[in-house]
Amino acid sequence: MRSVVVLFMLAIACSLSAHAAGAIATDDEENGAVYALVTGAASREDAGNTALAECRRNGGKNCKVMARFDRCGAYAALAGKRLYGAGWGDSGEVARSMALAKCADHSCKVQALECE
Q1: Which pLDDT band, with edges at 50, 70 and 90, does 3 fall under?
Q2: Is the pLDDT of residue 14 over 60?
Q3: Which of 1, 33, 42, 89 is exposed most, by the fewest CB atoms within 10 A?
Q4: How far is 94 from 97, CA to CA, in rounded Å?
């Protein structure tokens, strides 16, 4: 019985450590062309900080975190326009659909999609 409890506790610990966080940041001054989507962070706060840093490295000067997520994140935009959207959810399809809906134009394209 004791070995079953130990194995159960190890399984819980492994499953908790397997979940990581992600975030999406963009610079709206750049019409949504400068963005960052990161995954694999230890927490949502860490993910947001990393996304901001990546967005700035990509050329953004006024980057802001648009979304933090635990499973999947997506970023959609319409090139050259100030139309973009971030989505998240339990699957790539849910995140993709939300990002496209928030972009609010049928011409928007998913620029990035990642799942943990």
Answers
A1: very low
A2: no
A3: 1
A4: 5
R_g (Cα) of the chain, nearest Å: 17
**How is the chain split into domains, by residue range?**
19-115
Query: Quick one: average pLDDT of 38-48?
Result: 97
Give which of 83, 82, 81, 80 is closest to 100, Cα–Cα: 83
What's the one-letter identity of residue 97?
S
Per-residue H/E/C for the chain:
CHHHHHHHHHHHHHHHHHCCEEEEEECHHHCCCCEEEEEEECCHHHHHHHHHHHHHHCCCCCCEEEEEECCEEEEEEECCCCEEEEEEECCHHHHHHHHHHHHCCCCCEEEEEEEC
